[in-house]
Amino acid sequence: MIIKGKAHKFTDDINTDDIIAAKYLISTNESELGSHCMETISPDFCKNVTQGDIIVAGKNFGCGSSREHAPLAIKGCGVAAVIAKSFSGIFFRNAINIGLPFLESKDTDEISDGDILEIDLNSGLIKNLTKKRSYQTAAFPEFLQKIVQDGGLMKYILKKGKGK
């Protein structure tokens, strides 16, 4: 699976309240949540995201509360993947549950806001097409790619159950 998009750069310790403010937790609608993604730390973020773009961040991305709304908001605004130095464990699980791919990379400091990236989830290769550089990380496991392709864990389970 290949993902290609523009990088939107964030720092370390982006917490779930930064991703989606608590006042929007009354909804679970991806599009509604997406329209408010990152607005407390980057008010124009949603206006600048196009379908398929990529969030790039430092360490501990998605820390804070265990709300599944955070990856839903990211996916809902059109972001196709997140690359960070590290992720909060609960964000990791919630991202899988809703079908949002992510990669850990120690090289996020080398990526700038606006760089065009191409991610090969099969190999873990991240190409920075703007800077003509490549960064290698662990491949995104095939079974997780299937969950992403099916739209999340529940849809994957339902599809797999129908296949029996």
Protein model, in words:
The protein has 164 residues and is α/β, with parallel strands linked by helices. It has one domain (2-162): Aconitase, domain 4, CATH 3.20.19.10. 30% of the residues lie in helices and 20% in strands. The chain is built from seven helices and seven strands; from the N terminus they run βαααβαβαββββαα. The chain has helices spanning 16-19, 30-34, 45-48, 69-76, 89-98, 142-149, 153-162; strands at residues 2-9, 54-57, 81-84, 102-104, 116-120, 125-128, 133-136. The chain has a seven-stranded mixed beta sheet with strand order 4-3-2-1-5-6-7, with no helix packed on it. Helix 4 (69-76) crosses helix 5 (89-98). The radius of gyration is 15 Å and the shape is globular. It starts with a strand and ends with a helix. The mean pLDDT is 94.
